[in-house]
Design goal:
6 helices, elongated, alpha+beta, 6-stranded antiparallel beta sheet, two-stranded antiparallel sheet, 268 residues
Length: 268
């Protein structure tokens, strides 16, 4: 299997070194960053093992020890996972600790929380959600977090998630237009269920990690969509999602009534 580096159609032995590399950075770390970029750009398909270390070492003309150390760094960083007897695979993020789970209603499968990836056999569970693409008028925070400069560079999704017919979460989601152009082809059709698999299927964008922040606010009139009245306590979840190269790819805020939010933690 050929491993394209930095957009090349096939591996060139000098590829990791051709862009005036910073030689103060060890070679294995430069390779680690190149491999992470492969994943972010979809050159290594999810679900298939990455090329064997012997093949990578031969193609790139570096030592096995250097390749192994680069791969081990990605494993330690949680981007790859080794499976005995099968190979090394791209690792999905685990959403078991997501604050979104605190809004999960009884009866919903655990994998349906926090935009996790469910077992494809089990399905996504009884989630009823919709979203629509709109012309974005993003807050400055969204531009800053995504590293963008102009409102025209952003796509916005607005999403209302209901469980059992009861609205629970109202979300605004901002995405870089260049990376998520495929969503525009969907027009204003509802986006049902989990968004991250839609990102992958429509735009070849994989989420590697997220950072969530929780705060408390008072409901405004706009929060009436969730059944809240002005002044009611609201939980606000802010999330930034990153790709496998560590670049921000999604900024979202979610608002829900504090009465629907229960968070517990076990300490040992």
């Amino acid at each position: 299997m050929a491993v394209p580096l930095s957009g090349e159609s096939a591996v060139q032995t000098e590829a990791p070194m051709r862009n005036a590399p910073d030689h103060r950075i060890p070679l294995y770390l430069r390779l680690r960053n190149e491999f992470a970029q492969h994943i972010a750009e979809g050159h290594w398909a999810f679900g298939a093992a990455i090329p064997p270390e012997t093949e990578l070492a031969s193609k790139l003309q570096v030592s096995m020890g250097t390749i192994r150390k680069a791969i081990e760094t990605l494993v330690d960083d949680g981007l790859l996972v080794r499976t005995r007897g099968r190979g090394t695979f791209i690792r999905r993020p685990s959403f078991e600790k997501s604050l979104y789970r605190a809004f999960r209603s009884p009866g919903l499968p655990i994998e349906a929380a926090g935009e996790g990836y469910p077992d494809p056999v089990a399905g996504t569970g009884p989630i009823n959600a919709s979203a629509v693409t709109v012309n974005a008028d993003p807050p400055q925070a969204a531009l800053d977090k995504l590293g963008l400069r102009k409102a025209q560079d952003v796509i916005e999704l607005r999403r209302l998630t209901s469980v059992g017919g009861k609205p629970e979460l109202s979300e605004r989601i901002w995405l870089p237009r260049k990376r998520f152009q495929g969503l525009l082809a969907l027009g204003e059709a509802p986006l049902i269920g989990l968004l991250y698999p839609i990102y992958e299927a429509s735009c070849s964008q994989l989420v590697a990690s997220v950072v969530e922040t929780l705060s408390i606010d008072s409901a405004s009139e706009a929060d009436g969509i969730t059944g809240a009245r002005p002044g009611d306590p609201m939980v606000v979840l802010t999330r930034i999602a990153y790709d496998y190269a560590g670049e921000p790819m999604e900024y979202r805020t979610a608002r829900g009534a504090a009465g629907n939010f229960t968070f517990s933690v076990e300490i040992r």
